[in-house]
Amino acid sequence: MELANTPKPPYYAVIFSSIRTDEDRGYSHMAEDMLRLAVSQDGFLGVESAREDVGITVSYWESLEAIKQWKQNIEHLKAQRLGREQWYSAFRVRISKVEREYGIW
Protein backbone atom coordinates (compact mmCIF):
# COMPACT_ATOMS: atom_id res chain seq x y z
CA MET A 1 0.00 0.00 0.00
CA GLU A 2 1.26 3.46 -0.87
CA LEU A 3 0.17 6.88 0.25
CA ALA A 4 -1.79 8.86 -2.33
CA ASN A 5 0.34 11.20 -4.42
CA THR A 6 -1.75 14.33 -4.01
CA PRO A 7 -0.97 17.74 -5.52
CA LYS A 8 -0.17 20.89 -3.61
CA PRO A 9 -3.27 21.96 -1.61
CA PRO A 10 -5.99 23.03 -1.73
CA TYR A 11 -7.97 19.95 -2.68
CA TYR A 12 -10.73 17.91 -1.01
CA ALA A 13 -10.88 14.69 0.99
CA VAL A 14 -13.89 12.39 1.31
CA ILE A 15 -13.50 10.38 4.51
CA PHE A 16 -15.61 7.23 4.60
CA SER A 17 -15.64 5.48 8.00
CA SER A 18 -17.51 2.21 8.32
CA ILE A 19 -18.29 -0.86 10.38
CA ARG A 20 -18.94 -3.94 8.25
CA THR A 21 -21.52 -6.65 8.70
CA ASP A 22 -20.30 -10.26 8.86
CA GLU A 23 -21.38 -11.14 5.32
CA ASP A 24 -19.27 -10.44 2.23
CA ARG A 25 -22.00 -11.11 -0.39
CA GLY A 26 -20.01 -9.50 -3.20
CA TYR A 27 -18.45 -6.70 -1.15
CA SER A 28 -14.84 -7.45 -2.11
CA HIS A 29 -15.66 -7.53 -5.81
CA MET A 30 -17.68 -4.31 -5.59
CA ALA A 31 -14.88 -2.55 -3.68
CA GLU A 32 -12.42 -3.43 -6.46
CA ASP A 33 -14.90 -2.22 -9.10
CA MET A 34 -15.46 1.06 -7.25
CA LEU A 35 -11.73 1.72 -7.02
CA ARG A 36 -11.30 1.16 -10.78
CA LEU A 37 -14.29 3.40 -11.46
CA ALA A 38 -13.12 6.17 -9.12
CA VAL A 39 -9.69 6.24 -10.75
CA SER A 40 -11.37 6.92 -14.11
CA GLN A 41 -13.45 9.83 -12.78
CA ASP A 42 -12.52 13.43 -13.63
CA GLY A 43 -11.06 15.13 -10.60
CA PHE A 44 -9.96 11.97 -8.75
CA LEU A 45 -6.54 12.43 -7.13
CA GLY A 46 -5.96 9.26 -5.10
CA VAL A 47 -7.12 7.04 -2.25
CA GLU A 48 -5.87 5.55 1.00
CA SER A 49 -7.66 2.84 2.95
CA ALA A 50 -7.27 0.79 6.13
CA ARG A 51 -9.50 -1.74 7.86
CA GLU A 52 -9.48 -3.21 11.34
CA ASP A 53 -12.64 -3.04 13.46
CA VAL A 54 -13.43 0.28 11.77
CA GLY A 55 -12.67 0.80 8.09
CA ILE A 56 -11.47 4.19 6.92
CA THR A 57 -11.12 5.12 3.27
CA VAL A 58 -10.02 8.60 2.28
CA SER A 59 -10.40 9.60 -1.35
CA TYR A 60 -8.93 12.85 -2.65
CA TRP A 61 -10.59 15.10 -5.21
CA GLU A 62 -9.81 18.31 -7.10
CA SER A 63 -13.16 19.97 -6.36
CA LEU A 64 -16.54 19.71 -4.69
CA GLU A 65 -18.05 19.33 -8.17
CA ALA A 66 -15.88 16.24 -8.82
CA ILE A 67 -17.10 14.76 -5.51
CA LYS A 68 -20.71 15.48 -6.48
CA GLN A 69 -20.24 13.76 -9.84
CA TRP A 70 -18.72 10.71 -8.11
CA LYS A 71 -21.60 10.51 -5.62
CA GLN A 72 -24.10 10.59 -8.49
CA ASN A 73 -22.35 7.96 -10.67
CA ILE A 74 -24.85 5.20 -11.52
CA GLU A 75 -22.57 2.33 -10.50
CA HIS A 76 -21.54 4.14 -7.32
CA LEU A 77 -25.24 4.69 -6.47
CA LYS A 78 -25.75 0.92 -6.75
CA ALA A 79 -22.80 0.29 -4.41
CA GLN A 80 -24.16 2.87 -1.94
CA ARG A 81 -27.54 1.12 -1.88
CA LEU A 82 -25.99 -2.31 -1.33
CA GLY A 83 -23.78 -0.86 1.39
CA ARG A 84 -26.81 0.47 3.28
CA GLU A 85 -28.77 -2.77 2.77
CA GLN A 86 -26.08 -5.45 3.25
CA TRP A 87 -22.48 -4.49 3.96
CA TYR A 88 -22.42 -1.84 6.69
CA SER A 89 -23.92 -1.83 10.15
CA ALA A 90 -22.81 1.81 10.45
CA PHE A 91 -21.01 4.35 8.28
CA ARG A 92 -20.26 8.04 8.01
CA VAL A 93 -19.06 10.25 5.17
CA ARG A 94 -17.20 13.47 5.87
CA ILE A 95 -15.96 15.95 3.29
CA SER A 96 -13.06 18.23 4.12
CA LYS A 97 -10.97 20.80 2.34
CA VAL A 98 -7.25 20.09 2.61
CA GLU A 99 -5.50 23.40 3.01
CA ARG A 100 -2.09 22.22 4.17
CA GLU A 101 -0.07 19.03 4.22
CA TYR A 102 3.34 17.96 5.44
CA GLY A 103 5.20 14.75 6.12
CA ILE A 104 7.88 12.46 4.81
CA TRP A 105 7.51 10.98 1.33
Q: Which shape, going by the Cα principal axes?
A: globular
The ordered string of helix (H) and strand (E) elements is EHEEHHE
Strand content: 25-35%
Distance between the termini: 13 Å
| Spans of at least 5 consecutive residues with low confidence | none
Number of helices: 3
Largest sheet: 4 strands, antiparallel
Helix content: 25-40%
Average pLDDT level: 95
Give the radius of gyration: 14 Å
Describe the structure in your own words.
The protein is α+β, with helices and mostly antiparallel strands and 105 residues long. It is built from three helices and four strands; from the N terminus they run E-H-E-E-H-H-E. The protein has a four-stranded antiparallel sheet. A hairpin with a 3-residue loop joins strand 2 and strand 3 (55-61). The protein is globular, with a radius of gyration of 14 Å. The model has no long low-confidence stretch (mean pLDDT 95).
